[in-house]
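Ticket #4471: complex job returned nothing on first submit. Input attached below:
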Amino acid sequence: MRKTLRLGIMGGTFDPIHFGHLVTAEEALVQFNLDKVVFMPTGRPVRKTHRYVSSPEDRYLMTVIATAANPDFEVSRIEIDRPGATYTVDTMLQLREIHGPRAELFFISGADAVREILTWKDAARFAELCTFIAATRPGFDSALEPFEAVGDAAVAPRVEAMEVPALAISSSDIRARVAARRPIRYLLPEAVAAYIEKNGLYREPVA
Ligand code: NAP
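Support reply: We reran it on our side without changes. The output follows.
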């Protein structure tokens, strides 16, 4: 059956969203010939108990502000609105239901996150539902290593690595800069920087 929609799903906490994320999404759109990229801010991250995470609504709004000018980008509230801890497999099942079997799903995220997918909830089911695009920083070529060991076992995710130089920018560095009153201009869209300032985000040093 011919697939009719090639849908990129950009998964992340986006606390805050920055130019590295936007360049990653644009690069994936072009390299993988996607029809659009849907940014999917994580609702309640399961593995972020070690640090304070900004509210889902703040992270959602910053993502909307950052992507508003690009007609190929959308932002979804699916994970923000779903109660309970956020598991990506549930999101993929929901998207499969919405778009039907003719949509081809590509889950885009940082290589550090993608490398752990074998340990995520329902990994085998998840691996069947989409292709993974792992965005790496330059010189970081080990994104696929854990999957080579899996070989053709039952859980054998399809993973593509994509080098993104702009990923030298990181959310944790931006949070630390705000807390230390250091500049964040040119690391993220100006309107997102204004939102951070206006709402007093990241003023306390919280890692
Ligand atoms: P993370 O562990 O905080 O991030 C790992 C690395 O990847 C960081 O360097 C991060 O940089 C980068 N990164 C994160 N999202 C990115 C993106 N979309 N594009 C490029 N780089 C990205 O990752 P996370 O944000 O918590 O989670 C990433 C995705 O995996 C989310 O969709 C999350 O829901 C999902 N996840 C699912 C499960 C599960 O279902 N069990 C478990 C863990 C994660 P920045 O900090 O600069 O973003």
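The pocket of NAP is lined by residues 10-13, 20-21, 24, 40, 42, 45-47, 86-88, 108-110, 112-113, 120-121, 135, 167, 170-172 (CB under 6 Å). Closing as resolved unless it happens again.
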